[in-house]
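Two folds, back to back.
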Amino acid sequence: MTGVPAQPIQPPAVPAHFQTFLAFDFGLKRTGVATGNRMLRSATPQRTIQAEGDARFVHVAERIKEWQPDALVIGVPYHPDGASHENTQRALKFGRQLRGRFGLQVFEVDERYSTTEAIASGAKDADAASACIILEQFLRNLP
């Protein structure tokens, strides 16, 4: 599916009782993490997960246990023209795995330029900062 224009991610229908969220900026070697809540509409960076494959999910489980989120948010990367690429598919698969393993609803956010924005802002941990940007974008779009 590489190079095929993707359907835009529709604004999520998020139940009003979902108040706390844990967001992930998926990467093959590092996964940025952020927490946030609906009331403040802000996110806080957390320690980036530096693990691959199944080892990543051990760390994800620890974060879910620690933060007890109502739902999860993942960034899904696209080319500037909206076309999907390999990392688009990897992020979507990560979202399906999260849903299956943890039984939480997973919301997807178009994360084009989030890492670039994080680096431009001078973030010490671009992955965690990118997860914050993804989560704050998600929270801003909630009613």
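---
second:
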Amino acid sequence: MAGAPITKPDHVTEKWFSVPELRLRNHRFVVPLDYSLDSETSPKITVFAREIVAVGKEEQAMPYLLYLQGGPGFESPRPSEASGWLQRACEEFRVILLDQRGTGLSSPLTSSSMLQFKSAKELADYLVHFRADNIVKDAEFIRVRLVPNADPWTILGQSFGGFCAVTYLSFAPEGLKQVLITGGIPPIGKAYTADDVYEAGYEQVIRQNEKYYKRFPEDVEIVRDIVNYLAESDGGGVPLPSGGILTPKGLQALGLSGLGSSTGFERLHYMLERVWDPILVPGAPKRISQFFLNAFENWHSFDTNPLYALLHESIYCEGASSRWSANRLREKVECKFDAIKAAKEGQNVLFTGEMVFPWMFDEIHALKPFKAAADLLAKKEDWPPLYDVATLNTNKVPVAAAVYYEDMYVNFKLVMETAPHISGIRLWITNEFMHSGLRDAGRQVVDHLLGMINGKRPVY
């Protein structure tokens, strides 16, 4: 029975608890770090999942829905009430929020826990087991232990979670009843490389910058002033509260969050409004405010979720290395992204997007210890496949995907080139939402996709 407590050597179920309109209980699974090894000899890690139902449905027989979070390297949401997509899903599903391995409560790889490794190579060799292929194997491990009769379940993948969903379709379609994807169709097949992703990404980032400065033209001069101030400071930047340094390139990285979500423009603008300390005493020197420096560090999640920076480019790698793809591709368009040159010449300083650069491991305090490991991962060539195009071409699992026309993180052009490789996929293409559509209008998005996949909306 769904509500019965379970305690097995590799699966522990905790007691139900409540938040408004929801009942929740935690599951902890002991899984192999490396599924290619014998289950007895492989090192073990813990994977955490939280089961959620609407109040009163604890004992009801309901289909299961697994949620796969975006990232990579981010844990599932921590619900405090019934709202958004989760509330909609709980109307007909028993929802499982999975902390993907290395995140949240799943043997988390934090800026402190990773210091336990004695060498960069030891850490890099460990990190190779934390991509989508093993996340899917964890999901299958959980499904056969959690779902009655090991029945297939529905999955909802947001962003990188959508990439994981396509990996799932490639290697374990027997575990899937239906698939919902929001802003997360990956470039599929060896014909696509990390370079293809970032080349298309820079084009979209330039467009997002144009829209941002059109929306807030007063920020053009503010950003130039900041860049000039940083460039003229000792060491080419100013110290950050954590011990890192804010440089012009670091400032540009605010575009990672500021240019791609529905409220990102406003948040970035309000942050820039308070960049300078007021001059309270005549003759006092101009200074960047502590408010801004704290806000800058809080804007990113590298201190709490360093796995994102370490593995981001690897999600595009199959049988080839990334070789710091975003950085190499930037060099080709550096005439547009040279912040110091742009500021001095009175041009718009462009923010960058969802890109991780090697200099981040010098300037961001939480990432400094992992620079050598990051470089080893960037040079790794023998990444295993993440997708099976032949299997996807003959897919029988119903799939519905929300595709956001102006998505800065998952390029629309690449999506439209690669989605046809997934047989039977139905696309909902919209410019009503940005990449954050599931967060911003979750009930509407999930309802639309379920309608598509369950025949409530016409095929054409």
